[in-house]
Amino acid sequence: MATVTETERGALTHPDVTSHAEVNEDVLSILSRPGKWWWILFGLASAGVGVLAFSWGYQLIFGIGATGLNSPVGWGVYITTFVFWVGIAHSGTLISAILFLFRARWRQSIYRAAEAMTVFAVMTAGLFPLIHLGRAWHAYWLFPYPNERLLWPNFRSPLVWDVFAVTTYFTVSSIFFYLGSIPDLAAARDKARGLRRKLYEFAALGWRGTDREWHHFGKAYLFLAALATPLVLSVHSVVSWDFAMAIVPGWHATIFAPYFVAGAIFSGVAMVITLSVPIRKIFGLEKYLTVRHFDAMAKLCLVTGLIVFYAYLIEFFMAWYSGEDPERRVFWNRLWGHYWWSTWIMLICNGFIPIMLWFRRVRHSIAALFVISIFINIGMWFERYTIIVTSLSHEFMPFAWNVYRPSLTEMGIILGSFAWFAFWFLLFIRILPPVAISELKEVLPAPYRARKKQEGER
Amino acid sequence: MSAQGTKGFLASFDYLDSIVEAIEELRQAGFRGLTAYAPYPEHHIEEALGYGKSPVRTFTLVGALVGAAAGFAFPVFASLDWPLVTGGKPILSMPAYVVIAFEMTILFGVLATVIGLFINMRFPNLKPIVIYDPEFTAGRFGLYVSADEERLEEARRIIDRHEPSALREDREGVHYA
Does A175 lie at the interface with B, CB-CB under 8 angstroms? Predict the structure, then answer.
C-alpha cells in the first residue's frame, strides 16, 4: 500500500517536533499565558493609539491646516505612510498565496503571523486616506453609490482604482486569513474551557475536520491562492499608478509598478522578520521558526532588495538619459538638495545594508537579521517620503518650489499608526494561534504504525 | 444518518496507515456511511474514500466571470450616465476600466469561492458536536461508521483488526458530521 512507504516529509523542516499533538500543546499554550512583556507592549501600544486619537481629533477640529501640507506639497507623510503600510501588507499574501502555489514548505511556520500582519497593515493603511481627506466624514464619497444627483466617480482616475484595489485587497486578505484560521480555531476550541470555548466554538463555525470539510477546503484554498496571487501584484501596481499616471517629474515612469511591487515585498518580508524574532524569543517557538526559515526569508529580502536597488539606479539613469531638464533637476535635487538625507537613508538602508545578506553567516544570525530588517523598514519608509516629497516640492515652475515640513500633529499620527498596528497584532497573538497548527502538520512526518513497529524492534 | 435501525460507532486511530487501511477494507466490504476525521488535510484518506473533483471550482469560475462583466459594465454605465469630458479623452475609456474589471474579477471570484465552499462543506455547522474526540484537531484520526444494525458487528471486526485507540458507540444515532 502506498501509504506505508510515504517518505519522511518535513523531517528537515522541523527536526525537533516529534508529534502532531505536540504542535497543539506548544502553540495553544501561547494563548493562555500572556506574560510580563506582552502586558508592557500592550500598554505602550494602547497609549500610542491614544496619541493617534488625540492627534486626529485635533486635526479634525482645526482642519488640515494643522498639518504641514500646503501648495505645492499636498501629499506628505500621510500618503508616505499609507504607501508604507500597503507595502508591508504585501508579504502576508505573498507568503500565504504565491509561496503556496510554489509549494515552498518553509512558509508553513510563518504564514499565519504574516497573514495577520497583512490584515492589520491594510487596516492601518486604510486610516490614512481618511486622515488625509481632512473632512473624514465625507469618506463615503470615494465609493460609487447612487447619490441624489447621480454623480459618479471618475473611473479614469488612479485614485478611484486605488479605492477598488485596496478595498478588494482588504476583503480578500481578511477572508484568506479567517478561512485559513478555521481549523486552528477548532483546535483551540477543543482545548479551551468556559467562555473562551464558547467564543472559539462560534468562531470555528462548527469545524470538525471531516473528510468532506478537508476535501472542499483544500480545493477552495487553492483557488483562493490562485486569485490572490495576481491580486497581490496588482494592488501595489495600482498604488504606484497613483504617482506614475501624473506628469510630475520623478513620478512619471513606466518602471513604477514592478519597482513598487518589489519594494512592497521587500519591506513586507523585512517586517515579518522584525515581528517574528521577538515572538519566537518571547514564546519559545524556536522549534517552529528555525534558522532555516529565517534563511529563506532573508533570501527573499535579498532578491527583492536587489530589484529595488536596480530600480533606484535605473531611475537615476533614466532621468539623465531622458534629457528632460525638470526630471534631471529632481533627481539631482534628491541626492544633493534639501532632502538629501532622506534619499541617502533610502539608498543606504535598502541598497547597501542588504548586501550583507549575501553572507550565509549573516543570514543564519537571528540578531543580525533583526537589525537589518529594522534598517530596511526605516529605509522603505524614507523611500516613499523621498519619492513623494522631493518630486512635489520641485516640480516644473521654479516660483512654485517650496519645502515641506511635517507638523507635530502629523508626527503624532504617524507614531500612532505604528501603535495601532501593534495593538491589533498583540491582540492577535493572544486570541488566534500565531503558528498555523493544521498546515504545519502537512509538512511534519505523518504517524505510521509500520514505522513505529520497526523502531520498536530495533 | 439517524434513520430507523441505523446506528454507528466512532473509532479513533493514532496512526495514518491504520485508518487508511480500515477505510479501504470497509469500502471493499461494501460499507458506505463513512466519515473520516483528520487534524490536517490528508490526501491518502481522500483517495481511500474515493473523492472526485470538488464542485467549488464552478463557483469560482462563475463568480470571476460575473465580476469581470460587472467590472466593465458598471464604469460604462456610470460614464454614460454622467459624461465627464476631460482632455478630449473618450467617454468610454476602456483601458482605464480594465483595472476596475480586474479587481472585481478577483473580488467576485473570491466571494463566490467562499459561498461555494460553505455550501459544499455544509457550513456553518452549528449543530452540537456530540460524538467526537477532541484529539481530532490535535494528533488523532477518526472514523465514524454508520451501518444497518445487522452489519454493525462486521464493521466492528474490521475496525478492531486495525487496533483503534478508542471506540465510542452511537446508540441514539446523534452523530452529525
Answer: yes
Residue A19 confidence (pLDDT): 85
User: Are B46 and A215 within 8 A, CB to CB?
Assistant: yes
pLDDT of residue B25: 92
What is the tally of structural domains in chain A? 1
Q: What is the ipTM of this complex?
A: 0.92
Report CB contact under 8 Å: A212, B122: yes
Between positions 223 and 282 of A, the ones with CB within 8 A of B are 223-224, 227-228, 230-231, 234, 238, 241
Number of H helices, E strands in chain A: 19, 0
Task: Please tell me the predicted confidence (pLDDT) of residue A6.
Answer: 43
Residue B22 sits in the same domain as residue B41: yes
- Same domain? B43 vs B82: no
Q: Answer for the pair A89, A169: CB distance below 8 angstroms, yes or no.
A: yes
In this prediction, residue B32 carries a pLDDT of 87
Q: Which residues of B touch A218 (CB under 8 A)?
A: 41, 54
Residues with pLDDT less than 50, chain A: 1-8, 10-11
Residue B30: domain span: 6-52+129-170
Do strands B33-37 and B141-148 pair parallel, antiparallel, or not at all (unpaired)? antiparallel
Contacts of A153 (CB under 8 A, 6+ apart): A142, A143, A144, A160, A163, B78
End-to-end CA distance of chain B: 9
pLDDT score of B176 more than 80? no
Which of B110, B111, B123 is the best substitution to test chain A (most A C-beta atoms within 10 A)? Answer: B110
Q: What is the pLDDT of residues A233-264, one digit of tens each?
A: 999 999 999 999 999 999 999 999 999 999 99
Nearest to A85 by CA among A127, A136, A131, A41: A127
Residue of B nearest to A191 (CA): B134
Provide the number of CB pairs (under 8 Å) joining chain A to chain B.
Answer: 213
Three cell numbers written together for B162: 486495525
A430 is in which domain, residue-wise? 30-137+166-440
Cα of A203 to nearest chain B Cα, Å: 10
- CB-based contact (8 Å) between A222 and chain B? no
C-beta atoms surrounding A418 within 10 Å: 16
Is B113 part of a structural domain of the chain?
yes
A142 occurs within a structural domain: no
Per-residue pLDDT tens for B128-155?
Answer: 888 888 899 998 999 999 888 888 888 8
Please give the Cα distance from A262 to A307 (Å, whole number).
6
- Report the alpha-carbon distance of residue A22 to residue A57 in Å, rounded: 48
